[in-house]
Amino acid sequence: MCSQVICRKALLPLSNADGTPSSDGSALSELTVDGIAMVQLLGPQDRLLRTLERQYPAVQVLVRGNEVTLTGPERDVARARALVDELIVMVRRGQDIGQADVSTSARVIADDRRPTELFGEPIVSSRGKAVRPKTDGQRAYVAAIDENTITFGIGPAGTGKTYLAMAKAVQALQRREVNRIILTRPAVEAGERLGFLPGTLTDKIDPYLRPLYDALNEMMDPELVPKLLAAGTVEVAPLAYMRGRTLNDSFVVLDEAQNTTPEQMKMFLTRLGFGSKMVVTGDITQVDLPGGASGLRIVTQILAGVPDIHFARLGSEDVVRHTLVGRIVDAYTRYDEERMAAEAGYRPGGRGTAPTGNIAGANRAERRGRVPQDRQQPWYHQEARSGREQHGSAR
Questions:
Q1: In the chain, at which end, N or C, are there fewer CB atoms within 10 A of the end residue's CB?
Q2: Number of Cα atoms under 13 Å in the Cβ half of residue 211
Q3: Domains recognised in the chain with CATH numbers
Q4: Are 261 and 289 in contact (CB under 8 A)?
Q5: What is the DSSP letter of 346?
């Protein structure tokens, strides 16, 4: 047994039974891991191990006790070994590794980079779990929050927009950079009509704000959260309650901003007071408004280029949920692009070329409210007037 904590054999080419080198370019790499529990490296029920195998399907992974053997094509084995090395370093740092971390690390290694250098420093830690940026996009987003008074985090589901914003809010409160945290979101149903909810006003709005409460309980001591809420140090409220207020010395997070109207967005942004910081998060492809334009989509055009305001855009490569979420986001993106291209093309049997109708993220309520494209053409109005004149003369 060597004196180092991790013992590794060099990446060696496999040999045939007669001792001649294998002609298929196969290689073997062996590691001995000491000093950490293998369940931390392999995951419960070997979930992390199976994720590693999915990243490199050509590599055979064999684990016996604390010994890991990798066999397969030389290039894939080298990358798989680099991934295992990086995961070991993360475990030693006390980082709680998930399946998304393994997938993200594999993508980083494919770019000849080290995941341990990419992952930022922890923002907050609670009950042994650290919250930190895990992708380039998330690192840029967190840096923008530090450097700007108002930051917009725009991206698909699972990119950590709200989670990282709330982590920065908790960090600012712990450092006494602000006196309170204000979390808000519009009370808009996700395509369903729930009707009248029973109970007090608080009972009625709690279902809409539950995701914010859940995130708070993950980042702070659950016993402390009710006390902070009762004292007003942490406030969770619907967007409608923001009108008429001036928010000084506060860290304000607006979630689900794609469901704000332009008027609501203007109202919210003008609540900014001295010593405060605002983060606005949303996904412009998931608009649940029954009609009208999304305030988040419009504000990207109105405030573009304004100093001390930053728009951070996250993509499917920043998704840190289940790896399938990133594929779902990509599939919907391709579908939307194909649909927009079809709507912008020539319609057989029609007159002329249809205008580019559906802008990115337009919802069905908006499309139903538009004037039919035939009626937007000049020839339609001319033929309509001619028809009315002929009908009048016939009478």
A1: C
A2: 15
A3: 6-118 (3.30.1370.10), 127-322 (3.40.50.300)
A4: yes
A5: B
